[in-house]
Amino acid sequence: MERTTQRMIEIPRDVMTGEELWQPGVLSCQGCGGSLAMKLALKGLGRRTVIVLPACCMSIIVGAYPYSTSQVPLLHVPFETAAAGASGVRAALDIRGEEDVVVMAWAGDGGTFDIGLQALSGAAERNEDILYVCYDNEAYMNTGIQRSGATPAGAWTTTTPDKAVKEESKKDIERIMLSHDIPYMATASVAYPADIYAKFKKIRSIKGTKFIHILSPCPPGWQIDSADSIKVSRMATQSNVFPIYEVENGKYTINVYPEKEVTVKEYMKTQGRFRYITDDAVNAAQEWTDRKWEKLKGMLK
Amino acid sequence: MRQLLKGNYAVAEGARLCRVKVVSVYPITPQTTIVERLSEICASGELDAKFIKVESEHSAMATLVGASSAGVRAFTATSSNGLLLMHEVLHWVAGARLPIVMTNVNRAVSGGWNIWADQTDSISQRDTGWLQIYCESSQEVLDSVIMAYRLAEKILMPVMLTYDAFFLSHTTEVVDVPDIELVDEFLPPYQPEFKLDIDNPRMFGGLMSPDYFYEHRYTVHKASQEALEYYPEVCREFRDIFGRDYDITEEYRTDGAEVIVVTTGTITSVVRITVDKMREAGRKVGLMKLRMFRPVPVDRWRSILGNVAKVVVIDRNLSPGLGGVFADEVQAALYSLENRPSIYPVVAGLGGRDVTPADIEGIINHALSSDDPAGVPLFWGLKE
Ligand SMILES: Cc1ncc(C[n+]2csc(CCOP(=O)(O)OP(=O)(O)O)c2C)c(N)n1
Ligand SMILES: [Mg+2]
Fold first, then answer.
1. What is the ipTM of this complex?
2. Burial class of residue B32 in the structure, from the number of CB atoms within 10 Å of its CB (0-12 exposed, 13-18 middle, 19+ buried)
């Protein structure tokens, strides 16, 4: 099997020199994966983009009135309405003859896996010509680390406290989205900036609903050192907990074959949020991960 | 052109005449025929609009947030549970100053399903910031859609028009459908100063600290009140072009009245004929039709009701533990008057229970014969 080369981890020249549409001065915590993901995404998308942003950490990170760090138009919308709001912006821009402008809904895992799923499913079923991005920090971080449908089994959050850490596995949002037969679905990770950049460049030319799921580490929520957020996200892919792949019109491609393999246990060990997990739960998580990885590889045939 | 139209079709005609650009509507009885009609005219090209077939009312209103923020004229229609589902987004729309127009068929609110006339749905949205206009006839509904866009886009506030389930939504009346060229003359294309614009990127609706939010809310309040100043101009121009208009609050045969009945919606028509009949018999009764409910035309209410001995307020809505909401608000508006009238709050016709001329006469006679209204609502026509 092909191993990912250093190239995937390096930051492409265009990213360094391209126009900065996510300006410095963001209100994120240090090591925030979400803000970095947005920066990379906008590099790939360019100026002709409108952001639709529901309640999530990013709606704070972008800045409070009268400031904004975004250099493209940005519309805040209620928590569960990212996909619906984006559908409306799309309709209006089409009427204005601005079909080339990308309308990007940018929501957290709570806004996607949970409260916004109905609107997202509606938009995907209508195959709205929008890009929907879920930056996934695996809990409700804005409100102070509560579990979401994206929180992995074994994780501590304030609503899955030490004596009752989360038992349920992470919801399979990729499978849900693919069941809508959308033209493009991808995963990405801030540990692989070249891959993010390439994906956001690519979606410009795809009509219909595009969905990109980005793993976005959260130092306070995952209880990691802010300097380690890239390392930890890379281990998520190296352990196959978060594989990086894309599905274009039903065709699967794995974009990142990790340069080294680590166990789920090693991945979990890097994060304080897993410190209450039992050995049995670690084994179950390893089995769950292996099963999903095999299934994914099976889709390549 | 004069046509036979049900109230719901009059609404669809109103949307067509206003050349709305984005329509997002989700079906609910008794509004459904609007969705059907709008689907047809969008598909046939009679209306050149994008119809977003959303999966819920919450998304219907949320798509309009997107569309209106991007600078196009947007329309929706709903009723009852559908309106309640929108509640969060209704606040958002008014706070964002988006001039969306929506029609709501007044239908009872569940639990205990009921699809018939009752205003508790729109009354529950009283504090969202939406302007509220209660209509009595299909002609009034159609005309009000056109007037509403003119008003909304001037003051940058959303407008909700309401009318009664079945009594209007499904009843056929003769309606004069104006020529679209005349409507164009009255209602210019929507061109907002601020919108989502690639060449002038701005952020809309972000976090506001206590340093800013209070003033922001005050501007929303002031914008709502601007409707009171601007509405007469809308009426005047509408009359100049179409030959009819609708007063913000209508006064009917109030001269020398001993009692004035305050109503909204279709009950108004029943009161109107009852007043005529009682006037013929020499009884001194009059009517005040409450059309615009938000913003509250306080001065107008005071000038109409300030010199009468007794006021009956009929509410086809209920705030449990209080009574009817219109009665409450009318009392509040009149309280500071020195010679304030005695108020007789009456709840009637909830969930589509018929309110007949005999009922109205009974209600008026009750008020005339009693000297102590005591402020507690009379639940008229309650079965034992
Ligand atoms: C209807 C509604 N319910 C709850 C909230 C409170 N709320 C705001 S953001 C948020 C969690 C967001 O979680 P997620 O989407 O994962 O984004 P994150 O903050 O983790 O980046 C919650 C619960 C809200 N704004 N609206
Ligand atoms: Mg989250």
1. 0.97
2. middle
